[in-house]
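User: Show me an example of a complex going from sequences to structure tokens.

Assistant: Sure. Here are the input components:
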Amino acid sequence: MSLWRKLPYVLLALVLAASLAANWLAPAGYARQYREATDAPPSHAHWLGTDELGRDRFSRVLYGTRISLLLAPAAALLSALLAALIGGLAGYLGGMWARMAMAVTDLFLSLPWLFLLITARALMPLNVSPLVSVMVTFLLLGLLGWTTAARVLCASAGTLRTADFVRQARAAGLPGLRLFWVHVVPNLKPVLYAQFWISIPVFILSEANLGILGLGVAEPMPSWGSLLKELEGLVSVGEEPWKFVPLILLVVVVTSFQSLLSRREEVAA
Amino acid sequence: MKCHIRNSERRACWQAIAITAICVALAAQATAQGGGELRFCLRAEPKTFHPLKVDDDASAAIRYLTGGVLVRVNRQTQQLEPGLAVSWNVSKDGREISFRLRSGVTFSDGTPFSAGDVAYTIQQLMDPALHSSTGDAFRSGAGNVETKVLSPTQISIRFPAQVAGLDRLFDQVAILSQHSPKKEMAVLGPFLVSDYTPGATVLLQRNPNYWKTDDRGRKLPYLDSIRLDIQPNRDVELLRFKRGELDLINSLDSTYFDKLAETSPQLVHDAGPSLDSEQLWFNEVTKAPISGYKKNWFHSANFRRAISEAINREDMARVVFHGHAQPAAGPFSPANLFWFNNRLKPQAYSPDAALKALQSEGFRLENGTLKDKDGNAVVFSIATNSGNKARESMAVLIQDDLQKIGIHVNVVTLDFPSLIERMMQTFDYEAILLGLTNVDLDPNGEMNVWLSSSENHQWNPQQKVPETAWEAEIDRLMRVQASASDANKRKEAFDRVQEIAVEEEPFIFLVNKNALSAVATTVHGAAPVILSPQTFWNAERLTVSPK
């Protein structure tokens, strides 16, 4: 394997390892405020400077990466599984089931999620710890983010339903559920993987946007979303380039994931 | 075929052209003062151009620029000055005010102004069907307001009960014309609305009939026009100001202020502490759906005082507002020259003293966590409105400060409607961090906050009878200040209200933000102040030179 082909693995491994070793690598806790050095540029003491409350940005990036890198894929996995179950099964069964499932999906797609999330937040107790808040946020994202993927999977499963090898298996007497599990699901995997990887950056950015509803990761816990918020109101890229590190990290991680995905598809083909 | 023109004819032709050009220029000068056009942003669509129906900032800005008032509060000195009235007198019982009006004044459409217009305006203002929030300030008791036109330049107005600070309230009352066919669009102020494109622009032209002149007898205003762009986005506003497309920015955010100061320090103005305050309060509502032991903490003045003592206000002003704020001493800012109680000083930061005070109440520190006498860990949430970066940062600083004495705070940001619902209806919250925007210098403007029966008595609203002795005392003192006609007696009563508020800390006052603004160098005569409208309070004397 060439170095170029190994690069995504290396990058992902490095980022993951660094985030998991945050307790040892970070020069300070993510909540520690150096109030005499707020909004400081990079220095020996603070490699990526400090934020507006004087918190060490490098430490916050490490801890934030851990949260986003573990929980966004978890939410993406939950939504992909729901999409496979609802969309895949509906597409495979076809007819009335497919129409009903797609009607429900369309209904979900047309719902004003913003208001539903506001209602969800209003129902939640206020006094929840940052850890619970982060879990609830990603759980909600996972539970609500399956609809688009379900439509794609329903269409793919519908095509497979009439494929020759499925007809042959059905003619050979293979029971419906086993046929779905053995012949349909493996062929849905590439679409499912694609939806899974696409969902990760979407969920990371959604978490950042949910912050304005009070649903995001609660302070003082960092996440890529809250770190990206620092870029709001930044007038020029050259002004404070170190603030772009979370964004660069997000791009690197998502690109690496995409690269691995396309590699797997090539191998499968 | 060639056309031959003689030299003398050619000369005559050039002379005619030159004379015409001079005439056009003179005509243009006759209609324009040469003061130029002032451009700035309204941050929301004005809800109305009717001056008596105003209850939003954008409409209030237009009312300020177009409305003619009997008396005007000078935004710089905070003193009352004559406007359309040359003199006035408030009766000893505080129920009646008489005005002597200027003669020879006309509305923008040429309709003459007289005492009849003032009577008509008061009648409209007090009409319950109009739902005027400006009129609400005059409603002192049951009964009708009587107006007596004594002559075209003299009028007296009698209210059913005493109205405290009566004369100053007329600063908000723009006089309407009784007879003009243009109704409320006929104005007595320095400018008139000439064009309005919803969602985009309000264009004001100078009022050619404005009565005021400068010291040299030159007619005011100097400006030819004011262009108000409707722009809610502050980033865009700042960008346009930097590009030279705008001349003023009111109420500048401290972050934007510093950014602008870095490159163009001559453009920014810090007028010092404003009237606005930021405060934290605990839920003291008896029926609130929160645990009983938490209610006990929140009802304890010692607990509230300890929390107040453990908050580092100096750091808050320096870190969150980049030094453009001052630690708050009490309910009124020192910017309110007359009503601020000079004996009050901001609470000193002392976590050790706070912890000692809590320990004397039975709280104890165990493994870094503060626990009450029943063993309940002291944990509560502070809610604030999402999208307000300064408040979110203040909440995180408080979280960190209180952590030092073992108190765990969960910071929650909510959209504004949800926060208001919890605050006003369900009372399902523990502590809230919000601000009070004060536009009124007089404490009467805060009656709805301090009276225990009021729905804006945030920590425990709408009490049938005051639940604590100190709230009963505040109620009494607020009524005393509202019913006394002697300004010193009023001040004495309100000074005591401020002292009780600081002793009991139902509101933990945090900081008073500074009044920050930006003015382009092309604007002459600007002197930004703390009172609204900060930068254009003297719009009639401003000029804008071309770049």
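The lines above are the inputs; the final block is the predicted structure for all two components together. Chain B has a mean pLDDT of 91.
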